Amino acid sequence: PVPTISWRKVNGHNPSKARLRKSQAVLEIPNVQLEDAGMYECKAENSRGRNVFRGQLQVYTYPHWVEKLNDTQLDSGDPLRWECKATGKPRPTYRWLKNGVPLWPQSRIEMVNGVLMIHSVNVSDAGMYQCLAENKYGTIYASAELKILASAPTFPLNQMRKTIIITKGQEVVIECKPQASPKPTITWKKGDKALRESKR
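^ CNTN5 protein, sequence as received from the core. Prediction below:
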């Protein structure tokens, strides 16, 4: 006689959105998600006996960004750490480009699992960077620009006053605030002699 058919997900519950058609002979799962993966069992039985078939459903996904890059501005000499993170099945692998050209590890440059590190950036590191996350189903891109600030010290906005008049015994504060990148070292002189710190 025509068998009765039933379906079940081994080690789990049937997806709530699943539906059965054609006298329960067809199991349909619309809009399949990662959690729908697993072993499914179809059981057919009539008065003469029963038979079972099992099949594995594997679900794969495009890479999808969890964490992207942001444009970054650094002083010459600063360290850079960029991370791009993606999900997907199979798990995505990462590649880096600089100005459209593949970037490779060097003495100052490390690339590990989607993390790019440059120790002590300089002007040559400036440019447009891309992180690629890819699996066999697709590739996605994230882009960011790295700007490196490098300038000799100047005093355009914070000129020191040429003359300071102060009453004997009072405290005087003289500020030295140059604009420079990287951060400059500052020394003081009185006339031609270097100033040294003292109690005063």
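The radius of gyration is 33 Å.
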